[in-house]
Amino acid sequence: MDSIRLRPLSRLFLALSLFFASVGSSFAQGTATDPSKAGVAPGATAAAAPAAAAGAPAGDAAAIAAGDALFKGNCAQCHAVNDVVVGPALGGITKRRPMSWIIPWVKNSSKLVASGDEYAVKLFNQYQKQQMPSFQLSDAEITSIVAYITSEEGKQGQKTDLNAKSGDQAAVDGTAAAAGDEAGSSKTMNVLLIVLVVVLIVLVVTLVIIANIMKDVLRGRKDIDGRDLEVIDQRFDFAKIYKSTAVRGIVGTVFVLAVLYETIQGAMGVGLQQGYQPTQPIAFSHKLHAGENQINCAYCHTSVYKSKSANIPSPNICMNCHSQIKTESPEIKKIYRAIERKQPIQWVRIHNLPDLAYFNHSQHTQVGGIECQTCHGPIQNMDVVYQYSALTMGWCINCHRETPLNTKGNGYYDNLVKLHDSENGAVPFTVSSNGGTECSKCHY
């Protein structure tokens, strides 16, 4: 008899293995993307508009636009034009008080109350003696805010409650819902992949059992000669493979390369804390404040547009709202205790550059017009803040190489742009073109 051949069985096993492996790989590729920390395009949140030029007319469109930005950055947390929030509705303010009263009130309301001004004292007592913070705004800036308020008086459909959502936020919620659907679909794919893997394992076990049964049946046949018995009883000798010089050399090389790779990756990762997300002493949600309530970043981080560092908000800024809102919240009571004990809140710093690197916030935010989200990611969607960007030297240099400079209207750049264009043609004038990748820019 011809020798017994198990090759058709082995071919069937190999074909099934390749089939399920390819199917499993395709499903794994379909679920590889993790949307949990997806970023946003730079510019997702509008930066504060520049202040109105000194002496701009109150009804001028530019003054109204500047007043809009100033109102949202300084006033919208406590006031609305046509509704009462923490403070009174501001619509009709020019009919109630003259500008000669409004300007000193905005600059230092406590001084006006202390002076005994009748209207100021009445307003102070009417709103539970809530102290309005002082604002370092010029007369022209306050005038532009009033111009904006006047232009908005009587308009319907404004949502001024601190818990109300704007149309933009509704769009964000819709995006979040879509992301939730995508996450649900991803979970279904994962379950399906697990089922396929289980089925593949069951098939492998079944084929092994069938092969052993066939061997037992064939051993009992009398017409099997010595050659057939050798095929049936053959064993796979792992010792020969293990003792092979070639195999040992390959294994040793792979091991050395793996150790070397991990060592290099570990060295490159020293000081890199991308994704760092510590637990803070108070559960402050940027998603609630900056996202749902649309509080401007500069309202809390008051120095972000004018200082080297973006300051951590002091408790009195929190109290501007929370002396009236959610006063019974356990987290808000932690702020009260810190104030009563005259102790700072021990916030855990997340973004920390090495001392050897110089970085100036105002140079990027005020001069460069860079949005907060460019470096900090979708901060308005974070319940707990994490480090979104790598903040490595290479990351900064790439940004300097790719970010064009806005040179319009700035005579300082006129000759530089001409020289650059004559040498580089249509290549944009970037931060790097202005020396932004020189070592001394950040290290000196």
UniProtKB/TrEMBL annotation:
Keywords: Heme, Iron, Membrane, Metal-binding, Signal, Transmembrane, Transmembrane helix. CDD domains: Cytochrom_C3. The chain crosses the membrane at residues 191-214. InterPro entries: Cyt_c-like_dom (IPR009056), Cyt_c-like_dom_sf (IPR036909), Cyt_c7-like (IPR029467), Multihaem_cyt_sf (IPR036280). Residues 1-28 form the signal peptide. PROSITE patterns: CYTC. GO terms for molecular function: electron transfer activity; heme binding; metal ion binding. Residues 62-153 form the Cytochrome c domain. This is C-type cytochrome. It comes from Hymenobacter rigui.
